[in-house]
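Workshop exercise sheet. Pairs work together: one partner reads the sequence aloud, the other fills in the structure field after running the prediction. Swap roles for the next sheet.
Pair: D.N. / O.F.
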Amino acid sequence: MKLILVRHGQSARNAGYEILDEENSLTIKGVKQAVEAGAVLAPKKIDAIYCSPAKRCIQTLDEILRVRDDNFAIHLTRLLGPKFKKENYEKIKARVELFLDDLKYDHKKTETVVIVSHHVSLEMMILILTGKTKKLENGELFEIVLVVETK
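Structure field:
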């Protein structure tokens, strides 16, 4: 299975504004980054998209979907959410591993799955799958081929 990881576009907090979580929307630059991510994904076959329910991720997803007219499943999941205040490394790792295990059972090895999420969740996913650390910038995409033995 191919995973295409997408970090949400720049948010107000990423730009240095002090705001409440529910107000943490994409900036103009963030919308532009999301539009660019959508343009990169436009010609690619996508079988499903998983997205954090955070507003900035949904806004990024909206821009990705704006240039598509195909039909695939879209899932919002808290497993891809931002780091919770009391969440430590082990808890982040556990929820990302749970998400990845679910993917292996829900998708065929020939499918392409897009994941729109946050820095911490995506960095943990990359570490689990590749053994290497990589920080994705806002709006950046990263592809990983996941070896799946089921289906």
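Discussion prompt: The first helix runs from residue 28 to 41. What would you look at next?
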